[in-house]
Amino acid sequence: MDQKFVSSTEIEEARKKRAEEWKAAYERLGEKPPEIEEEYDPRTLYEKLQEQKMKKEEAFQEMTRFSNLIHRLDEDEIDFLATLEHEQRGKEMEKMKKVEEELEEFRRAAAKADEEAVPKLIIQPETISTAPIKPSVKKDAQRMILANAIKIPSRKRSLNNDDTNSSNSNEQSKDQKRSKLDSSSSNETATSSTSTTNNNVTNNTLASLLAYSDNSSSDESTSDDES
Q1: Measured between alpha carbons, how far is 66 from 72 in angstroms, rounded to an integer?
Q2: Is residue 107 included in any domain, yes or no?
Q3: Calpha distance 29→69 (Å, rounded)
Q4: CB contact at 8 A, 33 and 22
């Protein structure tokens, strides 16, 4: 025998369909359909109550589904998170201290290196300046020979300069004397010219006076003759 499995949902749907058909038939007749008696349920009261309770819980969970996504922390979880945060802060503080210590060591090493580098820079020019100063006998002898060779023409040059200076001074003195003579001769010519001009002026004045006196005497004689 073939047995077909039927679910409860299918049974419920068939029942609802039958009830609707009975209701439509009574409405055509204009009568009120009778109340459907509940089917016999062999389950106990506890089972029925448990089923109702489960249905209510499912409905409540469906309503509060989004609110369940937010998890509320317990006291134990809060304490655990607080201790974890405290440990993380302690680790971060230790890292910061290590970084500061390393930076301080680096600064000290850099300052020490600078202090060691400064004297080296000061000593280097001294070593450079003192290193080439090494006198040799050959160089000193050559320098002495060159100095003696240079001194002789320098003396000759000084004597020649003295001779030229003396000759120049003699020529200058001669030129000064010539200029003095020229100036004195020019002064004499100027004085002679002034004296000649003065003599000419006096002669002219005397001649004019004599002429005037002659004219006056002739005028007087003519006036006497007329009288």
Answers
A1: 13
A2: no
A3: 55
A4: yes
Asked if 48 and 41 touch (Cβ cutoff 8 Å), the reply is yes
Q: What separation in angstroms does the CA of 193 have from each of 65, 196, 197, 203?
A: 150, 5, 6, 15
pLDDT tens-digit readout, 175-210? 666 666 666 555 555 555 555 565 565 666 656 655
pLDDT digits (tens, 9 = 90+) for 137-177: 555 666 676 666 555 545 545 555 555 655 566 666 666 66
Domain that holds residue 41: 8-68
Query: Which residue type is seen at 176?
Result: Q
| 164 in a structural domain | no
* DSSP character at residue 184: H
Instruction: Count structural domains, the chain.
Output: 1
Between CA 186 and CA 180 the distance in angstroms is 10
The answer to whether residue 49 is domain-embedded is: yes
DSSP string, 81-144: HHHHHHHHHHHHHHHHHHHHHHHHHHHHHHHHHHHHHHHHHHHHHHHHHHTT----HHHHHHHH
Model's pTM, two decimal places? 0.23
Answer yes or no: is 57 within a domain.
Answer: yes
The CA distance from 118 to 144, in Å, is 42
